[in-house]
Amino acid sequence: xxxxxxxxxxxxxxxxxxxxxxxxxxxxxxxxxxxxxxxxxxxxxxxxxxxxxxxxxxxxxxxxxxxxxxxxxxxxxxxxxxxxxxxxxxxxxxxxxxxxxxxxxxxxxxxxxxxxxxxxxxxxxxxxxxxxxxxxxxxxxxxxxxxxxxxxxxxxxxxxxxxxxxxxxxxxxxxxxxxxxxxxxxxxxxxxxxxxxxxxxxxxxxxxxxxxxxxxxxxxxxxxxxxxxxxxxxxxxxxxxxxxxxxxxxxxxxxxxxxxxxxxxxxxxxxxxxxxxxxxxxxxxxxxxxxxxxxxxxxxxxxxxxxxxxxxxxxxxxxxxxxxxxxxxxxxxxxxxxxxxxxxxxxxxxxxxxxxxxxxxxxxxxxxxxxxxxxxxxxxxxxxxxxxxxxxxxxxxxxxxxxxxxxxxxxxxxxxxxxxxxxxxxxxxxxxxxxxxxxxxxxxxxxxxxxxxxxxxxxxxxxxxxxxxxxxxxxxxxxxxxxxxxxxxxxxxxxxxxxxxxxxxxxxxxxxxxxxxxxxxxxxxxxxxxxxxxxxxxxxxxxxxxxxxxxxxxxxxxx
Length: 559
Ligand SMILES: [Zn+2]
Fold this sequence. Notes:
globular; 24 strands; alpha/beta
């Protein structure tokens, strides 16, 4: 008896990401698997009376995108916040905030995201006094695109108990003004959290990133709000062609919410999450918590199977760690969040437990510390296929470039982040790192040429989540000066960084990240032919269908 497919996609330009058969015209799906890939003539006989036929109209069909570094809860909350993306100057800021405040009279805290470090001035830091002139009668705060700095008005600082300053963890700071009161600038999660606590979600979206803590004494209503927010965020991912997310928040609360969504309506994207190891946590947590979380969440749709850490902060906040001094601030290199020995001990123990590690490292000093720790772990436990990774790698020292390949470390990078790209200002970044470091800043091409495996992501909500925008940015990267190396990647390399390499990082390359018979049916159908489109225009190509685990999770409504 002939078995028919559940879904066939025909009339397509299929890029399989499978080297043995890179191109096709059609594919068939049964259940949650791809059952055939080939010509339209080969696939059409699999159409039965109940088969759904998707005509791709000569658009590109790819494995669903794997967003390798993002924050689902904070991003989903951000969908409801005021976006200050590309907003510049006092008047525009005030108009935006006043409009948002008028439309959201019941919000306990007015929160805006994507506020650039130079939103009000190229030279002066934003203060609470500036924000008081924007709005003073309601608590207001705005967060930088990288989420490492926030600025709050006086009302918000008062309510959060920060106006008179507060001692916060190493690497975090409630910046004080000359008048002896908080200036309004809050650096890093521990300093920002008391303000976020004022919001409708009580700042719970920041726990997995910041304190590494869990919410306490939650009402069922509060939990329902969070679940609803995350469910919306997951649908938003699907609408962008994403079928896998690596949610970098190590937070049991989010795992439980995602598990509930999975058990009720089913997750529309696969989710991988880490255990977040902070510098005050005992190493025994790796065995008692991280490994236990892994045992509990270990399916192809929801898993918690690695460890996330931060070794430094961000360059603009002067909390990134460099090998030499910041160019604008002699004597300051940044302070790491862990000592080298402490980092080595944690990474070695995680490695012994066979838990891969992903460490946020921005400056070249931070990157070197993490590579040293991975090397120490492999010396202690023996070399294995660990698939450890480093997040961001904004600046690297040339001696460390070959070590990615030697140690098998994956470079997790964000094409949307370089200053000058995607509307981001060049300053203060370029003068902070200094001219000598420019050639090896955001050096994807240099790392790829040295044999490093690269995954791309947006770090949403740090930058917009759209993979097509990110692919565009990776391929159109502009140089800061003519004598700098060209860091653009090719289309094939960029697509691999968003599909097949992401699956490899997750140890799922045997079933995901390629369009191949037997593989999980994670597919995106795009509106155009990516190979025939100039790189500058790639972000105009949009997802029209997203299929995850054999289920249509997004379908563009034709108007
Ligand atoms: Zn992140």
